[in-house]
Amino acid sequence: MEQPTEFSNNWESFIKMLLHQLDIPTKEDIANINKRLDKLEQLIYQSHPSSRQKNKSRTPRKKSASSIVLNIIGNHPEGTDFKTIKAATGFDDKKLRNIIFRLDRIKKIERVSRGIYKRI
Q1: In order of start, what are the domains of the chain with their CATH numbers?
Q2: What 3-state class would DSSP assign to 14?
Q3: pLDDT at residue 57 greater than cutoff 70
């Protein structure tokens, strides 16, 4: 019965020696590295907790083209024409027509007469 334990001890020592010579990390080595990385991440987060929040607040949200057109139409309660909207936005005809069509379809604006639009 002593022979299997000696054989298993020799086998384990052989594997350890082989891992050491080939510079292959063991499970314990990887676990230690993970613990150290966790500690480093915690230290980084503790030293700069608000850096992510500051970056988000610095970048203003860009308005969509539809909301820009809707605001311009809303500034004229009696209604406004296509030329006025085009001059205020600087959008080309096709883009502006598509936006007006979509806003009319979802009932955000109404067509008062040909080329005159009013916010609902």
Answers
A1: 2-58 (no CATH), 65-119 (1.10.10.10)
A2: helix
A3: no
Q: How far apart are the first and last CA of the chain?
A: 93
pLDDT surpasses 90 at 110: yes
3-state secondary structure of 61: coil
Q: d(Cα 117, Cα 104) in Å, to the nearest integer? A: 9
Q: Please, are residues 112 and 118 in contact by the beta-carbon 8 Å criterion?
A: yes
- 103 Cβ contact list (under 8 Å, min separation 6): 66, 69, 70, 73, 109, 117
The model's pLDDT over 84-105, given as tens digits with 9 standing for 90+, comes to 999 999 999 999 999 999 999 9
pTM, two decimals, is 0.50
